[in-house]
Specification:
Helices cover 46% and strands 11% of the residues. The chain is α/β, with parallel strands linked by helices.
Length: 305
Amino acid sequence: MYTNRLHGVVIPTITPMHEDGTLDVPSLEKYTEFLIGTGINCLYPNGTNGESLMLTKEERETVAQTMSDVNAKRLPIFIQCGSMTTEETASHVKHAVKIGADGVGIMTPAFFTMDEEAMFEYYSDAIKDVPTDFPIYVYNIPGCTTNDVTPTLLGRLMNTFPNVIGIKYSCPNLMRIEDYLRCCESKPDILIGCDSLFLQCLITGGVGTVTGPGAVFYKRFNRVYRQYMAGDLKGAQETQNQIVKLDRQLAGIPGIPALKTMLKQRGIIESDTCRKPLRKLTQKECDTIARVIENYDKEEENIHE
């Protein structure tokens, strides 16, 4: 039914900023072009890694429009639209439709605890006016939002709105993935937001991962997906173990600043500035990242598929 769906290696993109904290559109354009050339499968702007809840509505629209224009339909692009209010969330969904995005993801409301009925109304109000052939993914990251999309709620949304077709789940709970797969008759597309469980998600029945580090370590993430799809489970397991090693080597370093530092070290963006209160990394943290990247590059040079 849908021309494009989230699948494989999906990059939740960062939002480049100048040293003064304003949007760096030239770096965003360069970054988008870079990602298109890496072989990843989909783009996902304005998510957690994009610092979306700390951007203004206008800034988020600029990010979505810029990436969509640069992408020019070369990769599927799904805009994360979840915001602190239903009104703004619905506005971002309509903007995504307007600019020709392939679909959207919608994070649950954050901070204020919502019961299932409140969340059902939130999603219903946000998507009720979009075309029925415009795909919607629920984004569930309860560790940050405090609100959890249960399998029952996902099934209810999918049964009510046929264009709700999947979920991005950012928790290391494979049992929940099993429950999502059984939440309704139309099997949802499930993407994991936990790098260490990419392969396990695929084996369980998921369709991909949404990975910030995949923007830098894309060769490794692409290889897991390629090996799995080709039926090379042994090779995929070996590559997944390499991803787990990367994850552990970077443990304890703030995630979004780390991504921007890596991209700056690679020469993709001009500054590693984040929207405060996110901080810049210490020199020790930057040195650790540089060593991890150097070792990764050396290891990848010896990979022969």
